[in-house]
Design a protein that fits this description.
Layout (H helix, E strand, L loop, with lengths): L5 E9 L15 E6 L2 E6 L8 E3 L4 E4 L1 E3 L11 H8 L4 H6 L4 H10 L2 H16 L3 E7 L6 H13 L7 E9 L10 H18 L5 E6 L6 H13 L3 E6 L7 H7 L4 E4 L5 H10 L2 E4 L1 H6 L8 H6 L4 E3 L13 H10 L5 H7 L2 H6 L17 E4 L6 H4 L6 E6 L2 E4 L1
Parallel strand pairs: 1-4, 1-5, 6-7, 7-8, 8-9, 9-10, 10-11, 11-12, 12-13
Antiparallel strand pairs: 1-2, 2-3, 5-14, 14-15, 15-16
Helix pairs in contact: 4-5, 6-7, 8-9, 12-13
Pathway: Amino-acid degradation; L-histidine degradation into L-glutamate; N-formimidoyl-L-glutamate from L-histidine: step 3/3
Catalytic activity: 4-imidazolone-5-propanoate + H2O = N-formimidoyl-L-glutamate
EC number: 3.5.2.7
Length: about 400
């Protein structure tokens, strides 16, 4: 990632997203000094520089962070969407080769370069809604070579766009057909072969598991977490989406960065997240698309001061949405979050969910100069109005990227 050596953003109204009420308030007109890819100063006094960008009173926020996506995949599931709407049961769709294994088949057949190319339009959708950092999971390969291929394709996105990519190994996403009826054997492969290779090649910073009745149980999940910890990788969890298995508490026990979905999370699970400072990542796109009715325990999360992130869960089966501000709107309308909570959910709390809470997601001296410049008057508009272009420019590592 190249850095802009010296730049001043002048005449900006800053929403810093630091803790407390001031972090959500608009600043008076001020000036930001960017040096070597970081924020060097924020001042109400003019800053001298030969390289100045006049924000003309526009609103400046931290760059948005989509902390949960499945951006890399091949194939389309639009036909399945249509079949379901026409009354075809999921079991019949799966029998016809549909479901997640259809995405696995298509992804296995695609090359690394093809996977990167297919992901770029989806990434562009996120970028147009202010995203400067994106987490990308594997999980549609389910073999050693294909999981590594997906992670390499995700990391290659940085060569095509101004974006920061965090990669997560999700080999424990579903049981591959080769291991039908042998989940423990597959988990053994993940722990003994895939995780060590990913760590050795530095292809991911985190390991995730779909801990659910249709995924992997607590014992299997813990084995994956143990292997991740042994190889110096962070853990995250797809937990409590369809039932309460205790996966979030297990994630917290391993100091997980985040527990994601969490619709069926109970108070004991919330307390566990609070004790470990694990982020609760809310995914309203999947809730909406699947017509779920079990709401995540928002009031309990507030009560126990668990940081809440919001993400797209961009994937072909349950959340085909490449728009983070739409998720902010859904977070308000479906989950009852406030506009401030959703903005924190895509900035400071999303940064924590990726392990970057001390360097991204706030406009603070010393933090990465990942910023978004908006043609709006108040931060509540992110969660309110949808569809009209509002992004004027982004900065990634201090490099200006005009829209």
């Amino acid at each position: 990632m190249s850095f802009c050596s010296d730049l001043v953003l002048s005449n900006a109204k800053v929403v810093s997203m630091t803790p407390g009420q001031d972090g959500y308030a608009l600043s008076p007109l001020c000036h930001l000094h960017i040096k070597d890819g970081r924020i060097a100063a924020v001042s109400q006094q003019p800053i001298e520089s030969q390289n100045t960008y006049d924000c003309q009173g526009k609103l400046v926020t931290p760059g948005f962070i989509d902390c949960h996506t499945h951006l890399i995949f091949a194939g389309s599931r639009a036909n399945e969407f249509e079949m379901r709407l026409n009354g075809v049961p999921y079991q019949e769709i799966a029998k016809q080769g549909g479901g997640i294994l259809s995405t696995v088949k298509a992804t296995r057949q695609a090359s690394e370069e093809q996977l990167t190319e297919l992901a770029l339009p989806r990434l562009d959708g996120l970028i147009q809604t202010g995203v400067t950092s994106v987490e990308v999971k594997s999980g549609y390969g389910l073999t050693i070579d294909d999981e590594l291929k997906m992670l390499r394709a995700a990391k290659a996105l940085e060569a095509h766009r101004k974006i920061r990519v965090s990669t997560t190994l999700l080999a424990a996403h579903a049981l591959p057909p080769e291991y039908a009826g042998r989940p423990d054997d597959y988990i053994e492969l993940v722990c003994k072969e895939i995780i060590p290779l990913v760590a050795e090649e530095q292809l991911a910073t985190s390991v995730d598991v779909f801990c659910e009745s249709i995924g992997f149980d607590l014992t299997q999940t813990e084995k994956v977490f143990q292997a991740a910890a042994e190889h110096g990788l962070n853990v995250k969890g797809h937990t409590e989406q369809l039932s309460n298995l205790g996966g979030s508490a297990l994630t917290a026990r391993y100091s997980g960065l985040s527990a994601d979905h969490i619709e069926f999370l109970d108070e004991d699970g919330v307390k566990a997240l609070a004790a470990s400072n694990t982020v609760a990542t809310l995914l309203p796109g999947a809730f909406y698309f699947l017509k779920e009715t079990q709401l995540p325990p928002i009031e309990l999360l507030r009560q126990h001061k668990v940081p809440m992130a919001i993400a797209t869960d961009l994937n072909p089966g349950t959340s085909p949405f490449a728009d983070l501000t739409m998720m902010m709107n859904m977070g308000c309308t479906l989950f009852g979050l406030t506009p401030e909570e959703t903005l924190r959910g895509v900035t400071s709390n999303a940064a924590k969910a990726l392990g970057y809470g001390e360097s991204r997601g706030q406009i603070v001296t010393g933090f990465d100069a990942d910023l978004a410049i908006w043609d709006i008057s108040h931060p509540a508009e992110f969660s309110y109005f949808q569809g009209a272009p509002r992004l004027s420019a982004r900065l990634v590592a201090g490099e200006l990227d005009h829209v």
